[in-house]
Amino acid sequence: MSNRVETLEFQAEARQLLQLMVHSIYSNKDVFLRELISNASDALDKLRLESLVDKELSADTSDLHIEIEVDKDARTLTVRDNGIGMNRDEVVGLIGTIAKSGTAELLRKLRESADAAASQELIGQFGVGFYATFMVADRVTLLTRRAGQSGGTRWESAGEGTYSIEEVEDAPQGTSVTLHLKPVDTDDNLHDYTAEWTIREIVKRYSDFISWPIRMTVDKPGEDGATTREEQTLNSMKALWARSRDEVDEAEYKEFYRHVAHDWADPLETIHMRGEGTFEYEALLFLPSHAPLDLFSPQGRRGVQLYVKRVFIMDDCDALMPNYLRFVKGVVDAHDLSLNISREILQQDRQIRAVRRRLVKKVLATLKDMSAESYRTFWTEFGAVVKEGLLEDPDNTETLLELVRTASTHDPAEPTTLRDYVERMKDGQTEIYYATGENRATIENSPHLEAFRAKGYEVLILTDPVDEVWVERVGAYDGKTLRSVAKGQVDLETEEEKEKAEAERQEYADLLTFLGGALADSVKEVRLSTRLTTSPACVVGDAHDMTPTLEKMYRAMGQEVPRVKRILELNPAHPLVTGLRKAHGEGGDTAALTETAELLYGMALLAEGGELADPARFTRILADRLARGL
Q: What keywords are annotated for this sequence in UniProt (predicted)?
């Protein structure tokens, strides 16, 4: 086997992150040990699982453990495991690059953050804990051999943009990471990480719940004054979820959350539950306090960890949690499943589906019972995801509707519940009015809201992409139809106003016919509006038409949908519209009237935040008209 040493460069993003680490972007440097132990624990979990699945795997699983070794004279600290290990390509892929989406965004936020705690949270979102070793070490050496393979790999770097890598013959199974420690510097929170009490304290604080033994050989004074060497286990190894709630303090819950979620912030809520009866299980779930940067990424982490009788089975077990609750982190330990159960079997397992229903109901009940302040934080971070449940989970639609919070015209700052909206409805109002759009400002300035605002009707302001879909799917709340202000006919008029509107329709009949023909390629109908008070025109859809935003969404996903023509509504009280009727009645220039119709339609599109089909033609006609008016 060749012992050729190669020197490679880190991926650009990894190199930048290394620089941030080396230059101490946060003060609590002790966490590097927690991250190494967490990585080692994951490697042992993976080997245990792979040995159960692959009976032919040539690997020693008789004494799986994590070992910490210090050399005070050489000032090195080594964290070693006999887990799954890595081959050369895995070393380059996992350490030489950051194979995560949104890394550039992470780096930008890290640079902008002057707050040490905020920096820790951002790092935790990406699980890049290995890089934390360069806060305390001048040089890091990694030796690894994948279980079942004969050759190993040695990796080394000083964290300055390059690393060396070579193949070796004598590497033991698993991975060891050796840190060549920087000098102690108490002013910079660099402690003596060769000191036994320091290591004990860090392990107890961060990793006591790890299910594998964490061992270290320590000096033990004898009765005659002689010192002997003794191997000790530093952690209790008791599964936190198997203990009763009374036996666990809040600090232990927080540390366990950081371990399973790879998040350095505290959880917003903790859910500790036990299922008994025909199918026994324990669950320890957490609601995060902030959304991860990969929340909407298809490659983002999903679901909770599954254990069977304290044996780790799989990460991201999506069979236990629906996609709209993908932010929930934690562990479910089932007592009655096979150790070699697959994802495919899980999806069909009747007992797993029953557990899933219970977990979902418990999570939704927890959300319902949260304090107003905590729930406000939660909804800000995860509200858009929770609303996906209105499309995916018909069994819990009523509960989810009670959880919805949305902006409305009632209050410029505070969101409202659907229940509160209904309680504020005007006498005789039978529908819940809503408007969708990219942002609040665009919606509030939309001509569609003019009549509702003038008559004092509250309108819900929906700005998440999923809002376009769930309001159509759900259709009603508490017996009240959900009604878009931008679709169908609006009936807000008194009997007197209706009589006046009918007379105007007769008066404008010829103009409406002309405009319908002139704009036939763009609109399906031109009619007088009952929703406008100040704008000359607006564009609306039929009651059951697809919205333009929804059309865009489908096309962005690669789905071809037919183009939906909309309806142009005119305000008969606006001078531009009355002038257009007069000019048409007097037999004005047809070409000029047609151009005016195009301008009117274009302005209506722009007013609602829409896009012009031919912006160049619109601006040319507008410029000609402006020039003639000077």
A: ATP-binding, Chaperone, Cytoplasm, Nucleotide-binding, Stress response
